[in-house]
Write a structure and sequence with these properties.
The complex is a heterodimer of chains A (about 100) and B (about 220). Chain A has about 100 residues and is an alpha+beta fold. Chain A is built from four helices and three strands; from the N terminus they run αβααββα. In chain A, strands 1-3-2 form a three-stranded antiparallel sheet. The chains are: A alpha+beta (about 100), B mainly alpha (about 220).
Chain lengths: ~100, ~220
C-alpha cells in the first residue's frame, strides 16, 4: 500500500479501468477477453500484461474454455479484487475530501 | 480449467503497456477514470431487450393479425390454416433462437448470467412443447375447434407472461414484471373475444405492449 493509502496494483490508469469494468459485472459473471479489450481500448499484449499483474495480486481470475475448435478466455473479478476496489474507492474519496477542505 | 494469462502476443513490462508508464496518477484523474469506465461498462455490458421486444411486438401484430384475417367470419369456426399456423410458429422459434444468440454474442458476458439465460430459454421451449402436447390432448379428449382456437392463441401468451415474471424475479426487473402481468391479463381475458376475435385482441394488446416496452427501454434503463 502506498503512503496515500491507494493500492499501487489498482492505482494505474489501465488497471483501474480494468478493475472498474469488471466490477460492473454481477457476482458470478465473467467477461470475454475480447470484449474487455474492446471496452478498455488496449492492445492484446498490453491487456495481458496488466491482467497478469492483477492476477498475481489475486484480484482477477482468467479462465480459458475450449469448445470444439474455438477457445474463449474469460476474465472475472475475485472477491479479493472487489474488496480491494472498495478500499481503493474509500481511500480515494478521503484523499479528494481532504484536498477539497484545504 | 484455470490458467495464468500467457504472454503471447504482448509486451511484458508496464512501460510497454503504454497507459502505465510510471507517471504518477493524481487522485482527481483516478476519480474521472473510475466514473468514465464505470459508466461505459454499465452501458455496454447491459443486455438490451430492445431488439427482442421489437421483434416480438411485430411478430404478434403481424403473425396473430394474419391469423385473425384467416379466421374472421368463419361460420362454423374451423381454425386457421394448419400450414400458415406451422409456418408462423417455426419463424417465431427460429427468430427467438437467433435473438438470444445475438444478445449473448454482443454482451460478451458469461458465467452465472449466461447460465440463467440458457435455463430461461430452455424453460420457454419446454413450456411451448408442453403447450402443443396439451393441445393434442385436448383434441383427443374431444374439445371443440373453438376451444382449441382459444387455447392455441392464448396459451403461448400465458407462457410468455410467466417467462417474464420469473425473469423479473431473478433480475429484480420491474418493467419485465409489468410486461409479464400484462401478458397474463391478455391471455386470461382475450379468450372472451371468442376463437376468432382472440387473435385480434392478442395481436393488439400483446403486440403493442411489446412495442411500447421497446420504445421506453432506453429511458427505463437510465432510471
Amino acid at each position: 500500500m502506498s503512503e496515500d493509502g491507494l493500492d499501487p496494483v489498482i492505482h494505474a490508469p489501465a488497471r483501474l479501468r480494468i478493475v472498474v469494468t469488471l466490477a460492473a459485472l454481477r457476482d458470478g459473471d465473467d467477461l470475454s477477453f475480447t470484449k474487455l479489450q474492446d471496452l478498455i481500448g488496449l492492445t492484446p499484449g498490453n491487456l495481458i500484461t496488466h491482467l497478469r499483474k492483477l492476477e498475481d495480486a489475486g484480484y482477477v481470475t482468467a479462465e480459458r474454455n475450449r469448445s470444439g475448435v474455438t477457445a474463449r478466455t474469460s476474465v472475472a473479478l475475485t472477491h479479493n479484487g472487489r474488496a480491494a476496489l472498495d478500499r481503493y474507492t474509500t481511500a480515494l474519496r478521503q484523499l479528494l475530501d481532504s484536498a477539497s477542505q484545504q | 480449467m484455470n490458467e495464468q494469462i500467457g504472454t503471447a502476443g504482448g509486451a511484458g513490462t508496464d512501460e510497454a503497456a503504454g497507459l502505465d508508464d510510471g507517471t504518477p496518477m493524481r487522485a482527481a484523474d483516478a476519480a474521472v477514470i473510475m466514473q468514465e469506465a464505470g459508466q461505459k461498462a454499465r452501458q455496454q455490458l447491459q443486455v438490451s431487450h430492445r431488439a427482442t421486444f421489437t421483434f416480438w411486438g411485430l411478430a404478434l401484430l403481424l403473425g396473430y393479425g394474419a391469423m385473425w384475417l384467416t379466421v374472421r367470419g368463419q361460420h362454423p369456426f374451423h381454425g386457421p390454416d394448419p400450414a400458415a399456423f406451422a409456418t408462423v410458429t417455426l419463424l417465431a422459434v427460429a427468430s427467438a433462437i437467433a435473438t438470444v444468440a445475438g444478445n449473448r454474442a454482443d454482451s460478451g458476458v458469461g458465467g452465472l448470467s449466461a447460465a440463467r439465460r440458457r435455463i430461461h430459454f430452455l424453460a420457454v421451449l419446454a413450456g411451448l412443447a408442453a403447450l402443443f402436447a396439451l393441445e393434442g390432448a385436448l383434441v383427443r379428449a374431444g374439445a371443440s375447434r373453438g376451444v382449441i382456437g382459444v387455447f392455441e392463441d392464448s396459451a403461448p401468451v400465458l407462457v410468455a407472461g410467466l417467462f417474464y415474471l420469473t425473469t423479473s424475479a431473478v433480475w429484480l426487473d420491474w418493467p419485465l414484471f409489468a410486461l409479464g402481468i400484462w401478458l397474463l391479463v391478455v391471455a386470461a381475458v382475450g379468450g372472451f373475444a371468442g376463437p376468432a376475435g382472440v387473435w385480434a385482441v392478442d395481436a393488439l394488446a400483446a403486440g403493442l405492449a411489446y412495442l411500447l416496452m421497446a420504445a421506453i427501454e432506453p429511458w427505463v434503463r437510465r432510471l
